[in-house]
Write a structure and sequence with these properties.
The chain has one helix and ten strands. With 155 residues, it is an alpha+beta fold. The strands form two sheets. Strands 5-7-3-1-9 form a five-stranded mixed beta sheet, with no helix packed on it. Strands 2-10-8-4-6 form a five-stranded mixed beta sheet, with no helix packed on it. The chain starts with a helix and ends with a strand.
Amino acid sequence: VLISLRRFLMKNLRISMFLFLLSLIFVSCEEDRIIYDGPTVVEFAPATASIKKGTTATPGTYSAKIQLVGPQRDTDLVLDYAVDPASTAATDQYTIEGTSGKVTIPAKSSFGYVKVNAVPDNIPSGTRTIVLLLQGNAEVRASENYKKFTLTITQ
């Protein structure tokens, strides 16, 4: 009786192990989909960058990326931003392309850009920073963690 009980347990153990391993194969094939379900926000991505001032012929430029976190829109999304007074670059040491204080994320897109150009002739020496503060608009707020962007202009 003891031998037949042992055989029965071993046979069931093998079947159980086989079914367990088979189930792992099917589970590991599933793709995890991460879906953001929080409020729609906008943010700078990345939050910092650095450029060289460049020359008069080829000044340093950088396009600060603004990312829409949430579903894409069917219409353009116009957002507000400001230059932080704590910036160490004087206003004659850089230019910002487009409408001052506005950036657009085009319809059916997740990104917009604020393009900053250094004015090398007005940056004699040292390092300067331009700090942009994303404000969003009435519909979409700026992410508290990534609403500030710092661009460092070096020699």
